[in-house]
Amino acid sequence: MKFKESETIELKKSTSQLDNSLEDLCAFSNHKGGTLYFGINDNSKIIGQVVSDSTLRNISQKILQKIKPEIQPEIREIIVESKTIIKVVIKEGQNKPYSLDGVSYKRIGSETKAMTFEELRRLAFEQVASEWELQMCKAATIKDINIKTVNEFLKLVRESKRLNIVDKDKIRILTKLGLIKDNKITNACIVLFGREPIRFDPNFSLRARRLKGETEIISMKDFNGNLFENLESGINFIKEHIRLEAKIEGLYRKERWEIPIEVLREIIINAFIHRDYTTNGFVYIDIRDKELIISNTGYLPGDLKISNLYKIHDSVPRNRSIAETVYYTGLIDKWGQGILNVIALLKKEKLEKPIFEQSGSYFRVYIKRPNVERLVEPVDKTVDKTVDKIIPAIKENPKIRAKDLIVLTGLTRRGIEYKLNQLKKQGILERIGSKKGGYWSIKKDKV
Questions:
Q1: Which of 111, 137, 314, 376 would you call most buried, defined as having the most Cβ atoms within 10 angstroms of its Cβ?
Q2: What is the mean pLDDT of residues 15-38?
Q3: CA atoms of 244 and 17, how far apart (whole Å)
C-alpha cells in the first residue's frame, strides 16, 4: 500500500503534529473531504504511531473543540507493514465554510492555505445558493405541479434507461427523487415541473433576444415556464433567428442548423443547472450577427477555472437535485463531460471552440456563428426561413394542418403556434372559422 500526499491525502509522522494537522482537516471539510494519516512521514515512509487508550479520544476532542461548525471525523488505528498508524477520514462538509480558531483553510494540491476574504465570501455565497434548491417553496402546493411536464419527463427517463421507475404515482415518484418532502414542494421541483413558476419568483424566466450589433434589440421574448418548457421555447426562438442550411447528398436533401441543436441544448441546460437562483437575474439567450451568447447568474464552483473547462474536469453542479433529475432524462451527459461534448461537436462541424467568460456575477458562453460575413442578411430585411415555407404551403392549401407544417418546417408544435401567432399579429395571416373546420386567409397586400 503506497501513501503520497495529494489534494485529499495528508501525511504526519506522529500525533505530536496534531495542532498543525487541524488546519489540514479544516481544509478537507471546505473541499472534497480527505484522509490524514499519523505515523507516515513526508517521504511516505511508514514509521508507525504509538496508540494509547487516550490517543484516539484526544484527536476527536481536539477536532470537535477547534473546528466550527462541528464535523464528525472517522478515526481508527490500522496496521500497515506490521506497524500501527492512525487514519482520520473527513467528509466534505455540508455547512461550509468551516474555520479553525476563526480562520478558514483551503486545499490546493497537497498544500493547505488560509482563505482570503474574497475566497471565504464566495464559499459562503455558494453554500447558500446550493441549499436553495432543497428549501420549501412556501406558497406552492401539489396543484402547482405541471403534470404534463412530469409525464414528458417520465417518458424521457424510460427511453434513456438511466433510472428504473416502476411506480405509477407521479407524486410518489417526485417524492422519491427528493423534490417533494412531506407533501411540500421544494424550489427544485418548481424549477423543474412548476406550472407558471414566475408566480413564485420572477427570476425563473428565460429571456431571449435578437440583437443588431451589441445592444440594439430587434426581437425579445420572455419565457416563463419551467426548465423543460423554457428549454424547448429557447431552442425554438433560436431556430427562428439562425440559418437552416441544406445540401444535396446523393439522392437526399440534408438540412442542418448553422450551430448544432445538441450544442445549444447542452449549454442552455447547463445555464439552468448551474445558475444561482438566490440572486436577481434571468438566463439569457442573445443572438448577435456574429455570435450567440448564453448567460446565467453564478460563479464557477469551487476551485474550477475557465481553463479547466477545455479538458476533463470534475463538475460540481450548484443545484445537484436539478442536475440529477435532468440527467435521468438523457438530455445531458455525465457531469463534466457535457462541455467536452460541445467542443467535440463544434469541431466536427468545423466551428470554433466556445469562449467562456466570468463577468461580474454572470457566467457566459460565446458561440461564434459561421461564415457570418457571407450569410447573414441585414436584420431589417430578414425573412424567416420558416415563413418562406409556411406562406407558400398555406397558399397551396389554406386548410393545411399544424402537424403538416411541423413536418415541413422542422419546428415543434409550440414553434409552429408561435410563428403562426406572429404572422397573425403582423396582419399577414387571418384564421377564418374554427380550429377544426376553418382555414387560413393570406392578406395579399402584406406579402
A1: 137
A2: 94
A3: 66
Distances (CA, A) of 115 to 19, 63, 103, 314: 18, 19, 8, 21
Structure confidence at residue 247 (pLDDT)? 66
Q: Which CATH number fits domain 203-368: 3.40.640.10, 3.40.50.10810, 3.30.565.60, 3.10.180.10?
A: 3.30.565.60
Q: Which string of DSSP letters, residue by residue, matches 133-144?
A: TTSB-TT--GGG
pLDDT of res. 375: 42
Q: Report domain extents, the chain.
A: 9-115, 133-202, 203-368, 386-442
3-class secondary structure per residue, 64-88: HHHEECCCCCEEEEEEECCEEEEEE
One-letter amino acid for residue 114 of the chain: A
For the chain, the average pLDDT equals: 88
Percent of the chain clearing pLDDT 70 (strictly above): 92
pLDDT at 335: 64
Q: Residues 422-431: contacts with CB within 8 Å, 24+ apart?
A: 423/387, 423/390, 428/391, 429/394
- Rounded Cα distance between 203 and 296, Å, is 11
CATH tag, 386-442: 1.10.10
CATH number of 9-115: 3.30.950.30
Q: Residue 141 — φ and ψ, nearest 5°? A: -130, 175
**pLDDT higher than threshold 60 for residue 245:** yes
Burial class of residue 184 (count of CB atoms within 10 Å of its CB; 0-12, 13-18, 19+):
middle
Q: In Å, what is the CA distance from 39 to each residue of 36, 79, 151, 213?
A: 10, 11, 57, 64
Q: Could you tell me if 107 and 93 are in contact, meaning their C-beta atoms sit under 8 angstroms apart?
A: no
- Mean pLDDT along residues 416-436: 84
Q: With a cut of 70, say whether residue 272 has pLDDT above it.
A: yes
